[in-house]
From TrEMBL:
Protein name listed in UniProt: Glycoside Hydrolase Family 131 protein
Coiled coil: none
Any one Pfam family match given in the protein's UniProt record, by short name: GH131_N
Span of the signal peptide: 1-16
Ranges where the Glycoside hydrolase 131 catalytic N-terminal domain occurs: 18-249
Keywords: Hydrolase, Signal
Sample GO molecular function, one term: hydrolase activity
Domain of life: Eukaryota
InterPro entries from the UniProt entry: GH131_N
Lineage, opening ranks: Eukaryota, Fungi, Dikarya, Basidiomycota, Agaricomycotina
Length: 253
């Protein structure tokens, strides 16, 4: 039995296929994001959600660099700094948004593992008084959020994962620390988390109420608060280690 179990583990480990690779190895600089359009769907990301009222481009809000990735990751050369400010209204607002979505012909649906690492930086961190939706599917069946949830009290400086309307993991985030996540969609589903270079552990078993999909947003969406005009200078989030695999999962960040 032990030998069979070992073989099965080995078979699982070697059979994982990366269905979409959102690491930024094929990008020279953020200007490459500007090549994407609905009529020219190149690269690994769709880049259409950002403030553009004053002629800004995707690269006005996104910066690539080795300093923006988890230093523990070896399979990527760089990560991305995602910025919003008071000019980040997209499609008339009132939310402030800069987001990246997968560009792929794969449907990214099934029992899959969506990987993402993120950091709340020490410089230009988000204001905890506002709800920030930072990793989510358009259907909002599983979201990573930071800050005071809109219409609620008492959980301001909190990084959390929410599915089915309930928080399944939360922490008061340490700025400058890398948080690694795997959102396991489909069945059985679950959530895997670690910090820094530690192996990801399954911290929640159960459905994330969704099947994956390509309408997966990574970045910054800041909700308005009491209808107040949001004159902010700069808020940043850093991301790396973004990819989707069909088995495993790979638990090294
Ligand atoms: C990166 O570019 C190479 C060369 O064009 C290509 O073979 C590879 O598939 C690209 N990688 C991704 C993740 O698209
Ligand atoms: C907001 O960011 C945009 C894009 O980088 C920049 O053009 C603009 O000057 C910034 N606005 C302020 C008030 O800093």
């Amino acid at each position: 039995m032990k030998a069979i179990a070992a073989l099965l583990t080995f078979a699982t480990a070697v059979s994982a296929t990366i269905l979409w690779d959102g690491r930024f190895n094929n990008y020279t600089s953020a200007a490459d994001f500007d090549q994407w359009s609905w009529s020219n769907q190149v690269g690994q990301y769709q880049t259409y959600i950002y403030g553009n009222l004053h002629g800004e481009k995707a690269s006005s809000w996104l910066t690539l660099g080795s300093e923006y990735k988890n230093p523990a990751t070896t399979a990527e050369k760089q990560g991305v700094k995602v910025k919003i400010n008071g000019s980040s209204t997209w499609n008339g607002g009132p939310m402030l948004r800069t987001e990246l979505l997968p560009q792929t012909t794969n449907s990214l649906t099934g029992h899959l593992y969506f990987h993402v690492s993120l950091q709340i930086p020490t410089v230009n961190p988000p204001d905890p008084a506002y709800e920030h939706q930072i990793v989510f599917w358009e259907g909002h069946y599983a979201d990573i959020k930071y800050g005071q949830l809109s219409g609620q009290n008492g959980v301001a400086d909190t990084l959390q994962v929410i599915t089915g309307g309930k928080s399944i993991w939360s922490v008061q985030p340490v700025k400058g620390t890398w948080y690694n996540f795997i959102l396991e969609v489909g069945s059985p589903g679950g959530l895997w988390v670690s910090t820094g270079s530690s192996s990801l552990q399954k911290v929640y078993s159960g459905s994330l109420n969704g099947n994956g999909g390509t309408d997966w947003h990574i970045g910054a969406l800041r909700l308005p608060l009491n209808g107040v005009t949001q004159q902010i200078t700069e808020t940043d989030f850093w991301y790396g280690g973004i990819y989707v695999e069909d088995s495993g999962p790979t638990t090294q960040p």
